[in-house]
Design brief:
It is a single chain. Strands 1-5-3-4-2-6 form a six-stranded mixed beta sheet, with helices on both faces. It is built from 17 helices and six strands. The termini are far apart. A hairpin with a 2-residue loop joins strand 3 and strand 4. The protein is elongated, with a radius of gyration of 33 Å. It is of the alpha/beta class and 377 residues long. Helix content is 50%, strand content 8%.
Length: 377
């Protein structure tokens, strides 16, 4: 028999085998029990060679069944490639719809989709949301923002959150940004560390400095704590998620973002800060901008020298009385001292009873998008 590699379809192989033996379709029908009309169709590749048929042909011709099936598979695939309508947007669509939290964006009214099974409607709304004329452009957006960890770019979910922040911020009216007023405001903010309810004054203080401040609930799995971006060189934006309802986390993240603004970070491209929780002891590789912001936030919340001294003197036992005494001396709520001790010692079980919730204190006075509320834009 000729080299079977020259055949491109199972019909071609079968014709060659019949010709070698001088067999007719009728004879093959008698030998195999197949309908003669079915054999004719197989020769024309109009009837596929199934696994059952391939096994019978293997017995009759001594050609492995796998060879018939391989040719059938290749032939079917070739036909599919010819007949299938090419869609250059298919790969982009699969990536976007798989990576973006479409359902969450719809439920939170970020995109207006009436029929969630209408892919074209979803695509149209996504392009409108991300302000692009081409679906494929959205895939390039993760390069348009920095992230806390410089080794990885922002995810599409994180970018969606950032776009919502910018969408809302553009509607806010604030005075021209003043770096000097922001520095002068730091002592005022520091005085608020005594109690959770004092956080209600934060939006007004930042507004007077020319900083647009808003709180947008995080999208699931985004792990965002906050962000710093600029609408223009005179209009910085600080956004937070409050994904941890803790006083120490709120003030650490807020002061972190304020330092970004003071240093002019994020002017070229927005900064998304993910997983910068002050009580998260996970080791991260961070850039100089983040180190600067972290140091400013840590020292703002609690004097690092005094915390280090306290730990050195009291470890491994931290008496409750001494802990509360330190918070009183520092003039801050115990939650902030507890957060720093947990972070520095890695003992996250310490002083959990002193955690103070803050979300309910700050939301009423802030521009909010989330937790059932939709920002008026």
């Amino acid at each position: 028999m000729k080299n079977t590699e020259i055949f491109k379809t199972p019909g071609q192989l079968l014709i060659s085998l019949l010709n070698e033996r001088g067999w007719s379709n009728r004879l093959l029908s008698s030998v195999t029990g197949f309908e003669e009309s079915g054999i004719s169709r197989m020769l024309l590749d109009k009837k596929p060679v199934t696994a059952e048929i391939a096994v019978v042909l293997e017995e009759v011709f001594g050609v492995q069944a796998e060879r018939f099936l391989s040719l059938q598979k290749s032939y079917d695939l070739a036909k599919a490639r010819i007949t299938a309508m090419p869609d250059p947007k298919r790969a982009a669509r699969a990536h976007l719809l798989g990576e973006l939290p479409i359902q969450e964006m719809i439920s939170r009214s970020w995109i207006a989709v009436k029929n969630q099974k209408d892919v074209e409607e979803i695509e149209s709304e996504l392009m409108k949301f991300f302000k692009t004329n081409h679906l494929s452009d959205i895939e390039q957006l993760p390069h348009a923002a920095k992230k806390t960890n410089p080794e990885s770019g922002a995810t599409l979910t994180q970018l969606a959150w950032l776009f919502r922040v910018q969408q809302i911020a553009k509607e806010l009216i604030t005075p021209k940004y003043s770096a000097s007023k922001t520095r002068d405001a730091l002592p005022k903010l520091k005085a608020l560390l005594i109690a959770p309810e004092e956080a209600r004054k934060v939006p007004q203080i930042l507004n007077e400095c020319g900083i647009k401040f808003l709180i947008v609930e995080a999208l699931k799995s985004s792990k965002i704590d906050g962000a710093c971006c600029w609408l223009n060189q005179h209009s910085p934006v600080i956004a937070m998620t409050l994904r941890f309802d803790r006083m120490d986390n709120f003030w650490f993240v807020l002061r972190h973002e304020i330092e970004h603004v003071l240093q002019g970070h994020g002017l070229e491209s927005p900064i998304i800060d993910a997983e910068i929780d002050s009580s998260d002891g996970a080791s991260k590789i961070i850039n100089e901008e983040e180190k600067l912001a972290n140091d400013a936030a840590s020292n703002f919340c609690v004097s690092q020298a005094k915390i280090d001294s306290f730990i050195a003197r009291k470890a491994p036992i931290f008496p409750e009385r001494d802990f509360l005494g330190l918070a009183k001396i520092l003039g801050v709520h115990p939650s902030l001292v507890a957060g720093q001790i947990r972070f520095k010692t890695g003992r996250f079980e310490l002083f959990n009873s002193h955690n103070a919730k803050i979300r309910s204190c700050v939301l009423p006075s802030a521009i909010v998008d989330g937790w059932g509320d939709i920002a008026p834009i």
